[in-house]
TrEMBL record:
InterPro entries: Porin_dom_sf. Keywords: Signal. This is Alginate export domain-containing protein. It comes from the Bacteria. Residues 1-21 form the signal peptide.
Amino acid sequence: MKHIAQGIAATALLLSGVSAAKDSVAFYQPQQADTDISVTTAPAGSFDEFADSTVDAIKDALRLYKAEDKSSLVQEVKLSWMEQYQIAVVQPNGSNSHHLKPGASPVNQEFRRSWVGLNIKLNTGTLFHTWARIGGLPMRETYAGGRTRKNYSYADFFDLYIQQEIPGVEGLSVKVGKLKPLFTMDYTEASSKIKCVERSLIGQFNGLDSNWGIDVTYAPRKDLSFYVQLLANDRASGVKSMTHSDVYRDGRGLKGEFGWEDKFFAIVGARYRFIETADSSHELVFQYMHDFDNSYDGHSEQGANYYGPGVQDSISVGYLYNRDRFTFMANAVAFYDVVDAEGGSNCYGLQIQPSYLVTPHVELVFRYTALSSLEYHGKGGTVVPLSADRYICTQTTAPLRCEHANAFYIGANFFFSAKNPDALKLMIGAEYITARTEGTDVYNGWEFTSAFRWSF
């Protein structure tokens, strides 16, 4: 109870002085896109008018240049700024003997995200976009040998690409550079728009981050789009670099050169929105990912260390329903041939996430996540990455992998501006996670999280 009280106190600290506003239901949008939505103008002199005008003023200050007509080559030059400071408290259930690690605190706090960006739009249909991480800020603490290790963020480019609209083909565009992989409903959503403090175990299953490659997107209609991503990873050591990609397993590469044969993966996806009315819509999303790495089926070189998506073939089928203030998202996934799996190597999962905008300032969210491996002689294989949760394996003695995991999340989001709901918000959440291997509990317990976020 002491640690639960610490979590409540941490949440109360973040809540003080923070107001709220409406969240956008926009989905499947690239991170460089503006998050403004059309809302009724706030009454003069009201808090909403103050909040909306404050956010607009900050956005205007970050817009360095905007052309007066379309004849100018440079149409717009705009800076972006994203921050996320969060506090987490883990409370493992001691009855299953999985307690905090020796020397570990149940409380962890960090600058989860601290990014600055630049967008330059040209009248040729060209966009230059980047997000750069700010280095040197306190990140989550880790624990080993009974000692606390303080960690700090590193400076690098999360995104760095050029996007070009193809003349003569409506809806066709190409991106080249360092890109975010688009796989699973949770991970495809822009980080500024996610409804829970942390993405689900499904969204974090592959440990994806941005990689060098190419993205070809074709949207012949507003309700239909297709895309192909060809991505490669060039990390060769545990040393962080401004130019290296970020998908890796144990921090050591295969040989050190940038190669397509053993470090290349591809994603194809399609989105279709249907049965649209004035206040509702349905959307289906299909995604398939294949990893061309040579580490599967025992083909990796002796002593080589795998890094990449961690699964040879992955399928994600998502559904999104919006109606007025209610949003429902579901995502079914299948992961085939998980690298280094013990026992069964396949894993299946389901995520269900309804949310409701109670007022223009308060949103409630529930999320259920299940992951399981079922085909190993009636048992599963230890392929479910419990380590995909940010804090459980950092601070407790829970195993990195298990056979089955279930997670129940309930949270609330509070928004500052109704016109720009994702610009400034407070997020609080509580998640209960259970994990089993060979019929035995290997972890169960609570995780309380609070995050103060802004994105301009």
